[in-house]
Amino acid sequence: MTDTTRRRLLAGGLATLALPASAVPAPAAPARAAPDAVRLVRAAAGTEVTTPHNRVPSELANEASELPGRVRLGARTPNVTIYEFFDYNCPWCRKSCQDARALIEGEADLAYVLVNFAVLGAPSIEAARIALAYARQTDGKGYFALHEKLFSLKGTVNGQRAYDAARALGADGDRLLKDADSDVVTAAMKAAVNLGNNLGFTATPTYLVLTEAYHGYLPLADKRRIVANVRGCEAVVC
């Protein structure tokens, strides 16, 4: 990728993807439940999790299933679906990525949907553009390999590093750059940010299950508990 191309990707991202300040969380520690909430959770006999969460309007939650650029992993006909809104420069999203393979492989009827929610600055916008271009080029197949590769990188993940990772996986470089700078990819990024804003997402990762939003990293055991609850009683808490 030439310097000119990198500047074009960066300029395109900043010019066409307006990120309101409220949508840009600080890349700090994961959100924590207040002490009273934690005590309440612990009293629920293990049926709840301590990650802060709240109910969101069903009409907004349903929009997640129509987001352009979303990548579905796991079951084609699931009985449970988890959406993860993530940023490639979020350290807790990295941890969530490390959990994802075990979760998907251990839950045959689970769909795990990845939503690029590039809210941590210009490098994240660049990386998301390349990732979404790769998803378009591969029709989503093999995307998880790129997802894991990007989260295995140390330091800031930007467009150059995402491009190099995608090329190493066999992507067509010219098409990758063309798609990354396209209106289609820009629209997908804007749709994710707009929905996240409407849902009140101010942290990464944020997860959506049914009409419940979890703000901050969900440990693998908690994800499995939520999946079991949805299967058992069609709610995140039984």
Automatic annotation (TrEMBL):
Residues 70-219 form the Thioredoxin-like fold domain. PANTHER family: DISULFIDE BOND FORMATION PROTEIN D, GLUTATHIONE S-TRANSFERASE KAPPA. Residues 1-23 form the signal peptide. Pfam families: Thioredoxin_4 (PF13462). Keywords: Disulfide bond, Oxidoreductase, Redox-active center, Signal. This is Thioredoxin domain-containing protein. It comes from the Bacteria. Belongs to the thioredoxin family. DsbA subfamily. It comes from Chelatococcus albus.
